[in-house]
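Notes from hallway chat w/ T.B., transcribed later so I don't forget. T.B. wanted the structure written out for a chain they're using in a teaching module, and asked if we could keep both sequence and structure tokens in one place. Agreed to drop them here.
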Amino acid sequence: MSYSIVVPKSVQKQLDRLPEQVYQRILKKIRLLAEEPRPAGSIKLKGVEAEYRFRIGDYRLRYKIDDDNRVIILGRCQHRKNVYD
């Protein structure tokens, strides 16, 4: 059973500003998260409960996993130099 993915408005704006080629790569990874929320390469962030990051080239996708409700909430999707600010 797959997870549903919640894309807040702020994250959608971040995605809309990305170059088309990068956007398509990230979109593919987001779809894969619905099937496997903790894929190989995802890293749990320290100091934050149930928050992970996934590397996609020079971009990072931060997200939270709610296992009880089977929901993934996207947090940020930005270039690696800006995503941890």
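Follow-up for T.B.: The radius of gyration is 12 Å. Might be a good example for the class.
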